[in-house]
Fold this protein.
Amino acid sequence: MPHKKPFLLLTSDSGFGHRSAANSIAKALMIRHANEAVVSVVNPIFDRPTFPLLQKAELNYDRNVMNFPGWYRLAYELSDTRSASTLVESTLTLALYGNIQRLIRDMQPCAIASTNQMFNAPVGAILHFMKHKLPYYTVVTDLADVHSLWFNSKPDRFYVASEWVKSKAIASGISPDKIFISGIPVDPEFGLNDLSREEMRLKLGLNPNLTTLLIVGSRRVSGIPDYLGALEMVSQPFQVVVIAGGDNELYEKLMHRNWSFPIHVKNFVTNVPEWMSCADILVTKAGGLILSEGLAAGLPIILVDYLPGQEEGNVRFILDNQAGAMVENPWRFYCLVDSWLKDNQLQLNAIAMNSRRLGHTDSAFVIAEALWQAAELDVPRRISNSKYVVVS
């Protein structure tokens, strides 16, 4: 029996989006090539001891951006040029070179993809040192304004979400023939579900006939109880699903309050495509991954929060394409939802069509197949027994 082809996906855990994107690509590879591929999803910052400052920045990411948004915005804006990014890349290469080099030597991958901008320069330097033409792709995980650090010249391909990101890549010196618009990779299940919205509601224990608002939170989304309270003024019938995203305090607060409308509260779920498929409206923050999931499901999106920097571009992307709206307070939230649910939901349906037009349900498959084709051109190599293999 021939050896399976090994693939290395590098990711980070500063928020959910980077790892979710990597996991989606891994899942797509295994759906298409389960008997021929083995996939490792690794965060090299924690793989082996590295610079403590880098590890602390990763561990404290949520807290820092919540407590010091002004500083985060300033640091983002000051470093968002190719010249500034080059200085940052030198530090990252020094910090991560040993870890990533050992990963490549241990795993002997036939192709590498990264879903975080920090790894472009270190991987490029390592492959240059090893004099190896190993295929290396970068997957950009925001919809519009992305940091210049993404556009180091070393990767062979860049998979991006939109023409907006492609333009930024070209302005940063990346050749257009290296840039592919794929959408941000979402769970392949988004394109495989064959149940109607009503059937999915029944499966998940919801009323199949009620308009459904899906509210997705996290430790970086503030004010959700207040927004829910505003919904008690809405005149049309509806139900709400809240996914707290691991925010235990939010989960407990919502579970111990009586509401005037049907509500289902989950702390953390692993079947996001199903919950998206049962909904009519998505309410969330402006993260690239969650918005891509909402667009893949064809949902009108209400944005209630965003991170300074790259998520401001995500807000503009949704608004400019008329796929949703941004609200600044609970009163505006109430007014918007109430208007969307009136007049046979004509306005809501029009926005849903715009959202569906922007969605990429097959994004993970597109990138997975590109990696597979690159591996087919590579010389077969032996797979070592490695503790890093997580999908097979």
Remarks:
- The domain at 5-186+362-377 is CATH 3.40.50.2000 (Rossmann fold).
- The chain is about 45% helix and 15% strand.
